[in-house]
Amino acid sequence: DAKTTQPTSMDCAEGRAANLPCNHSTISGNEYVYWYRQIHSQGPQYIIHGLKNNETNEMASLIITEDRKSSTLILPHATLRDTAVYYCIVRFNTGNQFYFGTGTSLTVIP
Amino acid sequence: EPEVTQTPSHQVTQMGQEVILRCVPISNHLYFYWYRQILGQKVEFLVSFYNNEISEKSEIFDDQFSVERPDGSNFTLKIRSTKLEDSAMYFCASSEETGYTFGSGTRLTVV
């Protein structure tokens, strides 16, 4: 089962930062935090992942709290194409399955 | 950017028929997976495959399902006798050791 808790839905104004929270209070020391998104019924798309340090790539930033019990995905300048379901997933880093929860449905509003 | 390719994009089959869903993973990846998503529901894990054998499978992956890597490039999911409840999007994924890359999926409709 999914080991994360996310809000069911969020709205964000176009051009503003979207901050998507995730709670993973039972995360173990070797588990990574992954973020994926799914647009309509397309295949899930990798966004970013991290262990304990904050991470940034061309798509987003990942902020992980010091106790690792929660994290926030930040889309710095949301566009209409960022409207999707965002999944926060924790897992060990090698070869294991992902447990998808229900995710957060993000709607970017013009 | 390397992609995971799935064919066909949409398959319609009659109940009781066998169906094979095909996937071409990213060439240097070592781990392969099948997931499914019934309309309006979560993405669910079916099976993982590593070193030419199943490494993990879910309760969904019963005797009606099988996977194969027949030629070193393709990765297939076979459903022997399809049921109405097998109608879903089926996603293939591959990975080295870290994050997956998913394909765009095959929509299977059983009528």
Beta strands of chain A, count: 9
Low-pLDDT sequence parts of chain B = none
Q: What structural category do the secondary elements of chain B indicate?
A: mainly beta
Radius of gyration of chain A: 13 Å
DSSP helix count of chain B? Answer: 0
- Coarse shape of chain A: globular
Rg over C-alpha atoms of chain B, rounded to the nearest angstrom: 13 Å
Residue share in helix of chain B: under 10%
- Give the strand order, joined by hyphens, for the main sheet of chain A: 1-9-8-3-4
How many angstroms separate the termini of chain B? Answer: 36 Å
User: Which chains share the greatest interface?
Assistant: A-B, 20 and 30 residues
How would you sum up the major sheet of chain A? 5 strands, mixed
Oligomer: heterodimer
Shape of chain B: globular
The topology string of helices and strands of chain B comes to EEEEEEEEEEE
Largest sheet of chain B: 7 strands, mixed
Explain what the structure shows.
The complex is a heterodimer of chains A (110) and B (111). Chain A is mainly beta and 110 residues long. Chain A is built from no helices and nine strands. Chain A has strands spanning 9-13, 18-23, 32-38, 45-50, 55-56, 61-64, 70-75, 84-91, 104-109. In chain A, the strands form two sheets. In chain A, strands 1-9-8-3-4 form a five-stranded mixed β-sheet, with no helix packed on it. In chain A, strands 2-7-6-5 form a four-stranded antiparallel β-sheet, with no helix packed on it. Chain A starts with 8 loop residues before the first strand and ends with a strand. The mean pLDDT of chain A is 92. Chain B is mainly β. Helices cover 0% and strands 51% of the residues of chain B. Chain B is built from no helices and eleven strands. In chain B, the strands form two sheets. In chain B, strands 2, 4, 5, 6, 9, 10 and 11 form a seven-stranded mixed β-sheet that branches. A four-stranded antiparallel β-sheet of chain B has the order 1-3-8-7, with no helix packed on it. The model of chain B has no long low-confidence stretch (mean pLDDT 94).
